[in-house]
Amino acid sequence: xINEPSYLPQEYGWIExxxxxxxxxxxxxxxxxxRRAQIxxxxxxxxxxxxxxxxxxxxxxxxxxxTIPSLVVKxxxxxxxxxxxxxVICIDEAxxxxxxxxxxxxxxxxxxxxxxIAGLDMDYEGKPFGPMPYLLAIAEFVTKLxxxxxxxxxxxSYSQRVIDSDRQVLVGEYDAYxxxxxxxxxxxxxxxxxxx
Length: 196
Hints:
By secondary structure, this protein is of the alpha/beta class. It has helices at residues 26-39, 77-82, 101-110, 132-138, and strands at 14-20, 44-49, 59-61, 67-69, 71-73, 88-91, 114-120, 141-145, 147-148, 155-156, 158-161, 177-180. It is globular and about 50 Å long.
């Protein structure tokens, strides 16, 4: 079930977090909510970090190639100044931002903005990723999405890294990650699944 607010008065602000593992549809859901807000006549700003340039250097793009124009920022400090004239602020790949993102989204919500955040809740070791656990704690609405495990076909909450790297931040696609269910996930790198 998608936990999305409806029929809330526009004079109030709140925070929504869409989380899950790789390939679970987080960005697709963020784009869907952004478009619905645009259809409702609301001014929407979509933001992504510079580190995420997999499909586009300027747009937010989902794995299924849905796209929406975005503002690319290096730091969370840019978000406040750029969002002044917008009612809805959408932030993709939130796990790549600093923990100061909490202060920024709280300030936005306290100033009557709807803030929609999408990001990985866990890294490749199955540990909470960046500011995401804190964002989940302060959000009024949380949606956890699941992919399908490439090993068992069950619901997958984990992102299995399948290439040799121990860096926490490694932007990649199916060449670097596979969705895995709990019983198929091994913390760290799964060298047996390494693509050739």
